[in-house]
Structure formats: C-alpha cells, structure tokens
Amino acid sequence: MTTKDLGSHLDFQDTWKLQEDLVAQRREGLIDDQFLLLEHAPVYTIGRTRDQSSLLNPSALPHPVVEINRGGQATFHGPGQLVGYAILDLENHGKDLHTHLRKLEDLLIHTLADFGVSAQRREGLTGVWIEDRKIASLGVGVRRWVTLHGFAINVQKKSLGGFLSITPCGLDGVSMTSLESELNAEISMTDFKNSVSDHAQRILQKTKI
C-alpha cells in the first residue's frame, strides 16, 4: 500500500475527482492500494439523501455544501482535522465492507492510544468515540470492490467550529471533540499523521481484524 501526504487546505471537489481516478486505476490493476492523508479547506459534505435536516440552516451555513456518493448525513471538514482516504481493492482483503469500516476505526483507536487517549466504538454507530464524545467520523463508498472515501478525525481544536452549524452525522445531542481538547495540549499534525500511517500499513492490509 502506498501512503501519500497531500497537504492541507485541499479543495474537496478536486480530491474527490482524484479518488475516482485512483479507483479506476486500481480496478485496472495499474496501481497498488493507496492511502491518502490530507486536510480540507472548510466544507460540509452530506450523503445522497432526501433528508438534509442535519444541515440546521442551509441558507446561513458559513462554508460550502457538497453532496457526495457516500452514506450518511452531514459532516464538516476543515483545517485541524485529518482526513484519510483508502483506495483498496477488497478482492484482496476479504470482500467485506463492514470489516473495512472496522479496520478504519481500529487504526484510529490505536493511533489515539499512542497519544495516551483511550477511545472506542459505540455499538450500532459508525465512528470513534471518547466516552460520549465523538472524535472521528467514517463514510465509505465502493466500486466493484474498490473502496473510496474513509475517515475524518479531529486532531486540533480549530477543527471543531464548523460543527456548530450542523447536527453531526444526524445524531442529536452529539458532542464533537478533538485530540487537543482531550489532552489540553497542542498536537503536531505531522506527528499524528506519522502514527496513522504506521497503523494503516499494519491494519488495513490484514484480511481480518
């Protein structure tokens, strides 16, 4: 698997097109599995659903909204939040999308443990939590068993402001948190990326978790 750090303030539409291009190449066997790490310019995304009530006041949102080809309600992406996109051929990894989601959660839980934070899953909900606070959201798509999209984890405090204008993932009463908020300390995004990359190489390449 090849890991690429694409940097920060990336346009969401541009990276979406990049993912689609990589999926097509992966399906043809032209490239190996890809794992992309980046920070987006501020944007809201929402899955293709008629129910967009998670966008609390669409006409007054502070950032653009993009409707995308994943499941789920609205979420926010922006600086201080690390996004990981996994372009994997599940033909080589058990052909199980639910297992793929659990692997993404697992690599984030292990990464947070590297920083001294105990995180977990919550039964019936996708994502990663610290007690009742949500720190990471997941949403994936698949094309003939090749995955796209992935996770977004709030690393720095500045990633949280955009969530105030939505109901994150359509879950009422959810409190979003960041790693910096939990530790009350500044976190280097480079250090966090390095830890994510190490765990991704180990966990995403497994057939099972």
Please give a quick description of this structure.
This protein is α/β, with parallel strands linked by helices. It has a single domain, classed as BirA Bifunctional Protein, domain 2 (2-Layer Sandwich), CATH 3.30.930.
Give a written overview of the molecule:
- The structure is a single chain.
- This protein is of the alpha/beta class and 209 residues long.
- The chain has a single domain, classed as 2-Layer Sandwich (BirA Bifunctional Protein, domain 2), CATH 3.30.930.10.
- Helices cover 26% and strands 32% of the residues.
- It has helices at residues 12-27, 97-114, 179-183, 189-203; strands at 2-10, 34-40, 43-47, 65-68, 75-77, 81-87, 120-122, 125-130, 133-143, 146-154, 175-176.
- Strands 1, 2, 6, 7, 8, 9, 10 and 11 form an 8-stranded mixed beta sheet that branches. The chain has a 3-stranded mixed beta sheet with strand order 4-3-5, with no helix packed on it.
- The mean pLDDT is 91.
SSE topology:
Layout: E1 2-10, H1 12-27, E2 34-40, E3 43-47, E4 65-68, E5 75-77, E6 81-87, H2 97-114, E7 120-122, E8 125-130, E9 133-143, E10 146-154, E11 175-176, H3 179-183, H4 189-203
Parallel strand pairs: 1-2, 3-4, 9-11
Antiparallel strand pairs: 2-6, 3-5, 6-10, 7-8, 8-9, 9-10
Helix pairs in contact: 2-4
Which structural traits does this protein have?
BirA Bifunctional Protein, domain 2, 11 strands, alpha/beta, 209 residues, three-stranded mixed beta sheet, 4 helices
